[in-house]
Design a protein that fits this description.
single chain; 8 helices
Length: 299
């Protein structure tokens, strides 16, 4: 006998994601054109960083839409992992962009070219304001994982805008052109860190790894300590997608007749303590063949 408990939260995150998406995408185009015309790699690098933000926001918006689609006969778990596949693609594409900009920056260090410092400052200052506005919109939205992840991208891009602004100021005041490719390499490092984290998190989901913020033994011991539970075995915890944590386990109970009340206590424990919202539990009587179990912790 299996009991399934599904705990879904509402989705009020789509609107702020779309607003932030439009802001960052529009200005990444403006910044790319400005970087090309002014000869600034720092602006081009920041435009690429804003593009990563755009992809991250788009993934969040897609996830918010797909999350509303019901499961069907072919996709019994729903469409959540489409977001994960898109994240892997996004990360790989941005790694290629990082490599390209890095090679251009190294070439600029060897062969300096003129950069219009005043143009760089103007566009970078506009970019900083856009990033601040995007961050404000996201902070006003629902505090979902998608919103939190998108906000981290935008905050990182604010640093990129500050770097580009500093580059323009240094060139305008001192005429020292190498600052532009040097700060471009710094921006590439910011993008690289974001890409590596994105790929790591996506691969964790695809490999069905226990979420990094959870401990399998701790969750098992917590379940085993619930009143009416004798032991826990065959415990598995994984992510269905970036926001849904799933758990399945066999629960050895003192009395099968009391299972409904035990199930409710287990459900409340998992949701409130660990925010695990997709639960499959199988009750078993005390007299079962020997298996590796997590026993109730003695007082």
């Amino acid at each position: 006998m299996h009991d399934h408990v599904h705990h879904r939260t509402g989705n009020g995150a789509l609107r702020p994601l779309i607003i932030a998406l439009v802001l960052t995408l529009s200005f990444s185009i403006v910044e790319a054109i400005g970087g090309w015309l002014s000869g600034s790699l720092a602006l081009l690098g920041d435009a690429a960083h804003m593009l990563t933000d755009t992809f991250a926001l788009a993934l969040g918006a897609i996830a918010a839409v797909l999350a509303k689609k019901p499961a069907d006969r072919e996709l019994s778990f729903g469409w959540g992992r489409a977001e994960v596949l898109a994240a892997v693609t996004n990360g790989l594409i941005m790694l290629l962009i990082v490599v390209g900009i890095s090679f251009m920056a190294i070439d600029r260090l060897r062969n300096p070219q003129p950069v219009h410092g005043s143009t760089v400052m103007l566009i970078a200052a506009m970019g900083l304001l856009i990033n601040i506005l995007a961050a404000w919109v996201l902070l006003k939205g629902e505090r979902t994982l998608n919103i939190r992840g998108a906000l981290l991208h935008v905050m990182g891009d604010m640093l990129g805008s500050v770097a580009a602004l500093a580059s323009g100021a240094v060139i305008y005041v001192t005429g020292w052109v190498p600052i532009d490719p040097l700060l471009s390499l710094l921006i590439c490092l910011l993008i690289l860190v974001s890409c590596v984290r994105l790929l790591r998190d996506a691969i964790d989901v695809l490999m069905e790894r226990v979420p990094r913020e959870l401990s399998l033994p701790v969750v098992g011991e917590t379940l085993a300590a619930v009143t009416g539970v004798r032991s826990v075995h065959d415990l598995h915890i994984w992510r269905l997608d970036s926001s849904t944590i799933s758990l399945s386990a066999h629960i050895v109970v003192d009395d099968l007749q009391a299972w409904p009340s035990v199930l409710e206590r287990l459900r409340e424990t998992l949701v409130k303590r660990f925010d695990i919202d997709h639960i499959t539990l199988q009750p078993e009587p005390l007299a079962m063949p020997e298996v590796t179990v997590i026993d109730k912790v003695s007082d």
